[in-house]
Design a protein that fits this description.
The structure holds 2 protein chains of 2 kinds. Chain A is α+β, with helices and mostly antiparallel strands. Chain A contains 5 helices and 3 strands. The chains are: A alpha+beta, B alpha/beta.
Chain lengths: ~140, ~400
């Protein structure tokens, strides 16, 4: 299967690979996927508590090129957004931007799930209620 | 100067040897006759060429030329061998024994026969990929008509104890069929010494053309027959109708002759390169060679690089190196290789595997390039892998509650 140029670019030069301090209450961590499925994504956000703006985002991903590209792109989009805006990132936006074929859509779903999990982790650390997201069939 | 891309997927198919092509060419144009045309010289020439190829092929496997039934390839050979025996020996029994690491052409043929009333035992393999002979013995029944176990596995290259398996089948009055696609032309295969009753193999895995293969069917001790699966002109002793693919058969014959003459020198050279590749890649932390290393084809190595995913790994170099992964992230099911899973490998290791298949034209320069490219990519992806980070922090990955999706 041929990958799109954008996927190849993110794979070759991934943005924001790394680790934030998961114990900090300004950091939200989302760990999604499973080794058995061949995809594990960890996405972290650093939030300015005063403004609610995401000042930094990092990822590490075990998976195929599309999974790596989806998480790399997600971290780029997260930086500078408010937490409330970040919740609205939709997996189909990632699919469109990266030209993912149908068999790789699950990679974008995983990235969206990772964003939401990171936001909920941040919220719970700061005494905010968990956002409830619609269950979806992957 | 190293020419890219490098081909390391010789278990999938091989390039045709130019010497094979050369022998085929006249049979497309001037010698185009139908080998079944008995009343003119065009037909006689074609028949002569087919007979000569039949001898070349038979010689490679220690068979009589009359025991070679030409097919379109090994998938057809598997179907004809297994379905043909099931139909021909229906009065004797309906039980077939095979194993879980067989090629789909065998497994799906058996599943098809189950729908028609066959009883099939799928033996599990041991962690090294080999069939447990005691389990085979225990699975034999009075109604067992066929034991179908591959000679060598296409994903991990392990070579089954064929002599012992055929002896068990014989002892219980069952026939022994083997899919020997990966073995014939690569390692010595002798149908008499190995006790083989039926054997499917194909030209394109041994530097011959695609679209031609053979089913060996034993004629003596015992005389074996299969029910034809194609109705028609009654070619190939009535077992496989259809005009013979004369140029393909001529090429197949030449490929077998070259394999017989050059097997020893090819094996010596290729196995050294395989060992060099494998030893270098084993230096990478948390890498594991799959399959029994002592009973293995000389040109195959299947290695799992823990904590990186196979398809992502291949993407790091698939512009330059062609090989296969046990991961199946492209398929909707996300199921990794059933062969690696049958060895008892966890899904994570199965997802992390690469199959290196070397061949007649593989060079040391190509292997050196591959070692560097694979090593660099594994290290780079591990820096990106959350599982690697957890492993390094001493976190037990199996203890985490993963959200399966």
């Amino acid at each position: 299967m041929a990958y799109s140029d954008k996927v190849i670019d993110h794979y070759s030069n991934p943005k924001n690979v790394g680790t934030l301090d998961k114990a900090s209450n300004t950091v939200g961590t989302g760990l999604v996927g499973a080794p058995e499925c061949g995809d594990v994504m960890r996405l972290q956000i650093q939030v300015d508590n005063a403004t609610g703006i995401i000042t930094d985002a990092k990822f590490k991903t075990f998976g195929c090129g599309s999974a790596i590209a989806s998480s790399s792109l997600a971290t780029e989009w997260l930086k500078g957004k408010s937490v409330d805006e970040a919740v609205k990132i939709d997996n189909m936006d990632l699919v469109e931007e990266l030209n993912l074929p149908p068999v790789k859509i699950h990679c974008s779903v995983l990235a969206e799930d990772a964003i939401k999990a990171a936001i909920n982790d941040y919220r719970s650390k700061n005494g905010l209620e968990q956002l409830v997201f619609e269950e979806r069939i992957h | 100067m190293l020419k890219l891309p490098i081909y390391l997927d010789h278990n999938a198919t091989t390039p045709m040897d130019p010497r094979v092509l050369e022998t085929m060419i006249p049979y497309f144009t001037e010698n185009f006759g139908n080998a079944a045309s008995r009343n003119h010289s065009f037909g006689w020439h074609a028949e002569e060429a087919v007979d000569y190829a039949r001898e070349q092929i038979a010689q490679l496997i220690g068979a009589d030329p009359k025991e070679i039934i030409f097919t379109s390839g090994a998938t057809e050979g598997d179907n004809l061998g297994i379905k043909g025996v099931y139909e021909m020996y229906a009065s004797k029994g309906n039980h077939i024994i095979t194993c879980t690491t067989e090629h789909k052409a065998v497994l799906d043929t058996c599943k098809h026969l189950e729908k028609l009333g066959a009883e099939v035992t799928y033996l599990e393999v041991q962690p090294d990929g080999l069939v447990d002979l005691k389990e085979l013995e225990a699975a034999m029944r009075p109604t067992t008509i066929l034991v179908a176990i591959m000679y060598a596995n296409n994903e991990i290259g392990v070579v089954q104890p064929v002599k012992e398996i055929s002896a068990i089948a014989k002892k219980h009055g069952a026939l022994f069929f083997t899919d020997a696609v990966q073995a014939v032309g690569k390692i010595p295969v002798d149908v008499n010494a190995d006790g083989i009753d039926l054997m499917a193999f194909t030209a394109h895995k041994m530097y011959g053309p695609k679209g031609v293969g053979a089913l060996y069917v034993r004629r003596k001790n015992p005389r074996v027959k299969v029910t034809a699966q194609l109705d028609g002109g009654g070619h190939e002793r009535g077992m496989r109708s259809g005009t013979l693919n004369v140029p393909g058969i001529v090429g197949f014959g030449k490929a077998c002759e070259l394999a017989r003459l050059e097997m020893a020198s090819d094996t010596e050279r290729i196995s050294k390169l395989r060992d060099k590749l494998e030893n270098a890649l084993k230096q990478i932390e948390e890498s594991y060679v799959n399959g029994n290393p002592a009973h293995r084809l000389p040109h195959v190595s299947n290695i799992s690089f823990k904590y990186v995913e196979g398809e992502g790994l291949m993407m790091g170099f698939n512009q330059d190196i062609a090989l296969s992964s046990g991961s199946a992230c492209t398929s909707a099911s996300l199921e990794p290789s059933y062969v690696l899973k049958a060895l008892g490998l966890g899904d994570d290791l199965a997802h992390s595997s690469l199959r290196f298949g070397l061949g007649r034209y593989t060079t040391e320069e190509q292997i050196d390039f591959t070692i560097k490219a694979v090593t660099d990519t594994v290290l780079k992806l591990r820096e990106m892998s959350p599982l690697w980070e957890m492993f390094k922090e001493g976190i037990d990955i199996d203890s985490i509650q993963w959200a399966h999706h």
